[in-house]
Fold this protein.
Amino acid sequence: MAEVTKQEITDFIENNIQKFHRRRLDSLTDLKLKKILKRKNPYLYKAKHFTTAPDLVKEILDAHLSAQEEGIFGDFLEELAIFICGKAYGGRKSSANGIDLEFEQDGVLYVVSIKSGPNWGNSRQISKMKDDFTKAKRILRTSGHAKRVETINGCCYGQEASEDKGDYTKLCGESFWAFISGQARLYLDIIEPLGHQAKERNEAFHQEYGKVINLFTKQFIDEFCDQAGQIDWERLVEFNSGRKRK
């Protein structure tokens, strides 16, 4: 095992966190109001008693962006984990379907599915991951791989009270980062570099965010408010859920 240094981690994060900020900004500037409205539940917002267009638009936009950011940042954390494991144990991006990382340690081949946090999926998605683990093991056996194979669900943050899931092991937060690096404090060491140019990047994001809020609010009022300025919920629901008519 080779120890990955703080400087190597810092350099990787500072060189690659820019992609997260760029994709985050792109996800905002590429948005269309009607595309978002098609994906959201108008009944929910009526039940929550939204009465003003700016408040409703902000709620819908923030919910969309939050989901987008989770996915974008999850991709970045996966890249970081593979980089760190590559330095420590010669880990590599897996070519197997549904598997993100492979590495060998003490005569064991570990195949790892990386997720952001512990509550990442429903029962169907978890079953899919278990199927991917089973297929990966079968392929390795067929190819004549002699080493013992262990399957790991690694989560970049959070905690897990019971790590042994029978078919696989679930490692979260401190346990996951220590497992792929051999360093107990690594989960703490990566936090500081993540703030690299965060202030400048977020200022640029919020400047664009303000423009989008203003533009979407105007578009929403024009399309889905009546002459008195009230939200026309029937028009909004018809746009979202009405059958397409010729």
The longest helix spans residues 53-89. The chain has one domain: 6-241. The chain has nine helices and five strands. Residues 6-241 form one domain.
